[in-house]
Amino acid sequence: MFKKILVANRGEIALRIIRACKELGVPTVAVYSTADRDSLHVFFADESVCIGPPLASDSYLKPARLIAAAEISGADAIHPGYGFLAESADFAEMCAMNGIIFIGPKPQTISLMGDKAQAKRTMQTAKVPTVPGSDGVIKDAAEALQLAQTIGYPVIVKASAGGGGRGMRIVRGAEQMESNFEMACAEAESAFGSGEVYIEKYLENPRHIEIQVMGLKDGRVLAFGERDCSIQRRHQKLIEESPSPAVTPKLRKKFIEAAVEGARSVEYLYAGTMEFLLDQNGDFYFMEMNTRIQVEHPVTEMVFGIDLVKMQIQAAAGEAIELTDREMQPRGHSIECRINAEDPEKNFLPSPGKITELHIPGGPGVRIDSHIYSGYTIPPNYDSLIAKVITHGRDRSEAIVRMRRALDEMVVEGVETTIPFHKKVLQHPDFIAGNVNTGFLTQFLK
After folding, report:
1. What is the DSSP string of 340-401?
2. Is 132-201 CATH 3.40.50.720?
3. What is the DSSP secondary structure assignment for residue 202, as one 8-state letter?
4. In the predicted structure, residue 302 carries a pLDDT above the cut 80
């Protein structure tokens, strides 16, 4: 096991990793910007190092400062969490060059799967179903028009170097192609430093299904069932659940086989997620791979009774991972609601500020992952996620009931949050029936 782990992140995921390390008996080093000096991850780590001013580009996104913090603190491993540099092949390479273990996949794997066009070609070679579209990067709008005529409208223009809804444009007819193509390229360049895009057939209102995998050094790839992440706003997930109400045991087997084969084809190591789109005919297609732990990993942990963060640390340290057949079977149902400091009544406008009163819910089947406390000031510099409410029940109905109870109990005063929004979604007949897709919130918010 490692001597000491530096957590190259902030907020709830940094605290989540620190908790896993404490259970493993591994000392931790927190890093923080001046805006995060009062964050819980700083208080609960064994050591802490300030790495710069509030702007992420001057602190959390500075690889050299993170490496220096690891060296001066004596950390022999770095856990990147999610976001920031978690999917930076360059950062992973820098860690290796400085004799520090990066708790994540190999740099070449991150690079390969981070390029969406290359990732798609790789999955095609591995016989994983992919959405019809370009074989690689599209050089101009004329080529895009020609391809769209072949595969049929609507199509979607997507950034090759990134995701999260940026550099992405839906085109429903030839007359829209040139302007949307140029906007997608410009947005991709601004967001990811690369204006390269590719094109796929646009699937109307599919479900977003992802498979949690864990690649081990002995060549095995463990797969822990699926998560349904279809409740999204502007391609950002808001509610996730496991298992999916739309996935049958037969379909689950196909998903897992595709995910495992895809991960094996790139010699994937440690925690990762294979993401797919499931259409209304029951056919599914590879979308992308996230080469890190996901925000929504707790729902998988709840239904499988495992700790994915501890497991990826143990795997990276070379410890044997042995699970029984029972441990590889899901039990019950779990739902996660992301609580953001945003005002749903004002188009989800961010609501930073001081939390004047806080009550965290509890009771059977309720888990809260959060870094906030009464008196904590939410900085305006970062993502607005302040807590994840996760519930588990014997079945989906019990998980929903427990989530409603937890949201009713949760009190966050001083800032606006998305709690009222989540309460409304959980009362919607279509959500209760499990009849949702990626277009659900578009209709819900009208």
Report:
1. ESEEGGGTTEE--EE--EEE---STTEEEEE---TTPEEPTTS--EEEEEEEEESSHHHHHH
2. no
3. P
4. yes
Measured CA to CA in angstroms, residue 192 lies from 161, 164, 178, 288, 290 at distances of 6, 11, 21, 16, 16
Percent of the chain with pLDDT over 90: 89
Residues 6+ apart with CB under 8 A from 57: none
- Spatial separation of the C-alpha atoms in residues 9 and 157, rounded to whole Å: 31
Q: Where are the alpha helices (DSSP H) in 49-140?
A: 63-73, 89-97, 107-114, 116-125
Residue ranges of the chain assigned to CATH 3.30.470.20: 207-444
Separation CA 77–CA 424 (nearest Å) = 43
Distance between CA 249 and CA 429 in Å, rounded?
A: 25
- Rounded distance between C-alpha atoms, residue 171 and residue 351, angstroms: 33
Residue found under tokens 């009163």: 357
- Fold classification of 5-103 is Rossmann fold (3.40.50)
207-444: what fold?
A: D-amino Acid Aminotransferase; Chain A, domain 1 (3.30.470)
Alpha carbon 205 to its chain's center? 20
| Pairing label, strands 385-393, 377-378 | unpaired
Instruction: Say yes or no to pLDDT of 164 above 80.
Output: no
Task: Give the integer Cα–Cα distance in Å for 60 and 86.
Answer: 11
Backbone angles phi, psi at 409, to 5 degrees: -80, -25
Averaged pLDDT for residues 346-368: 97
**To the nearest 10°, the Cα dihedral for 12, 381, 228, 108?**
-90
Mean pLDDT of 7-18: 98
Q: Which residues are catalytic?
A: 292
Characterize the bridge pairing of strands 28-33 and 47-52: parallel
